[in-house]
Design brief:
two-stranded parallel ribbon, D-Maltodextrin-Binding Protein, domain 2, single chain, alpha/beta
Length: 184
């Protein structure tokens, strides 16, 4: 994680001369909207980056969690924000890659309404169960799900989890119950 933060700070420092030549930026505190709840992985990363950006630029970078609608609430606010460079969207692939496939109507255009700035990092997803669970492998979970359609539940915190669960069910011919985390 330290390497990611260092990379972001280095990219920002390299970009400073161009910003200084054009104009003093940021001229006011910068809002960093995130599409998930406070305490989420995205929130933690955003707060780390915000601190380093604040230190590098001498201006506040304020993280604002705006959870809901699978990230669409925050995305729409950023898409409709004043184009003054003082609102940033610190997001995941949920709002730009998954939502167009998951939602019938979008309140923003993930391509036209945003300008990519940088990739901060990547997160690996995994499947886990309680240590007290009778299941010790994916094969055992699939076997149980086949024997008890709809009785095995899985949770997710974003659309990648939703799609991963749906893909597993399709590939294995099972039916499981999705339980979304409340901040998505």
């Amino acid at each position: 994680m330290k390497q990611i933060v260092r990379l972001v700070v280095a990219l920002c420092v390299v970009a400073v001369p161009g910003f200084v030549a054009a104009q003093a930026w940021p001229s006011a505190p910068v809002r960093m909207l995130i599409p998930f709840a406070a305490g989420s992985a995205t929130d933690v990363y955003a707060r780390l980056v915000a601190k380093h950006l604040s230190d590098a630029f001498g201006q506040q970078f304020i993280v604002e969690p705006k959870p809901g609608a699978n990230g669409s609430i925050a995305a729409q606010q950023v898409a409709k924000s004043k184009p003054d460079g003082l609102t940033l969207f610190f997001t995941t692939n949920t709002t730009h890659a998954a939502n167009p496939s998951l939602m019938k109507q979008m309140t923003y255009d993930p391509v036209k309404d945003f300008e990519p700035v940088t990739k901060i990092g990547g997160i690996a997803f995994f499947m886990a169960v309680s240590a007290a669970s009778p299941y010790k492998s994916v094969a055992e979970i699939v076997e149980a799900a086949k024997g008890q359609p709809g009785k095995i539940a899985y949770a997710s915190g974003n659309s990648v989890g939703i799609l991963s669960g749906a893909t597993l069910q399709k590939m294995t011919g099972t039916q499981m119950t999705h339980v979304p985390y409340k901040s998505t």
